[in-house]
Amino acid sequence: LVFSFHVGSNCDDGTLFAEAIAHSRRLFDYATALGHKMRLLDIGGGFPGQNMAKFQAIADEVNRSLEKHFPTDSGVDVVAEPGRFYAEKAFTLCCTVIARRTVPANQITKNEADRNSFGYTYSINDGVYGSFNCILCDTGKPMATVLKEGREKLYWTSVCGPTDDSLDLVIAQCRMPMLGEGDVIVFENMGAYTFNSESISKPEMRYVISRNDWFAFLSKFMGNHEATELNSHADNLCAKLFA
């Protein structure tokens, strides 16, 4: 038999895992007293995917608690489900601006001191009913990077999805340069709780690797001479992400 628990998505407090493991020990003992053979503990997921220092702190807390309550000679196997940890950083989402609206800056900042300046509200081609459903259903706080060079001045900005729904808000407030239709906004760490199999319009997917990583990969499996030869033809084998 198995006991499992889940502390909640994107947990940032390792003591929650430790407490749950301690509770599981008591449940194991109770079940064993009733005659059940307890063989497996599933500590679930919820591990952070971006902050490695936080992940390590949680892992240390988990290991200490397991050593205390389920040592290696206890006869109990332990499994975890670190889906976010593996998936979150694996995907980067590129969106394009489909509309721009000039608004008083205080509409964005909610600060009356900004009422005499202006900002921009952008609509992009994806939103909370697509790849950004993590905002509504999880703890998602997308961080945007503008794929545009040579524009220094920053304006108060909000970023919305393609619908007219007031909930379709990707970023409520940030600073960005002025963008135009077709400009690209990049969102990193978008691999967890984003688009799903039932999405009406899924983003087009591309596998991306840097030239250095590509060469390192080839060298590991082919040897340096063969890798150098194949790497010289990389532009013919792989399409550039941006021309």
From TrEMBL:
Cofactor names: pyridoxal 5'-phosphate
GO molecular function: ornithine decarboxylase activity
Gene: Odc1
InterPro entries, per database record: Ala_racemase/Decarboxylase_C (IPR009006), De-COase2_C (IPR022643), De-COase2_CS (IPR022657), De-COase2_N (IPR022644), Orn_de-COase (IPR002433), PLP-binding_barrel (IPR029066)
UniProt family annotation: Belongs to the Orn/Lys/Arg decarboxylase class-II family.
Keywords in alphabetical order: Lyase, Pyridoxal phosphate
PROSITE patterns listed in its UniProt record: ODR_DC_2_2 (PS00879)
Name of protein: Ornithine decarboxylase
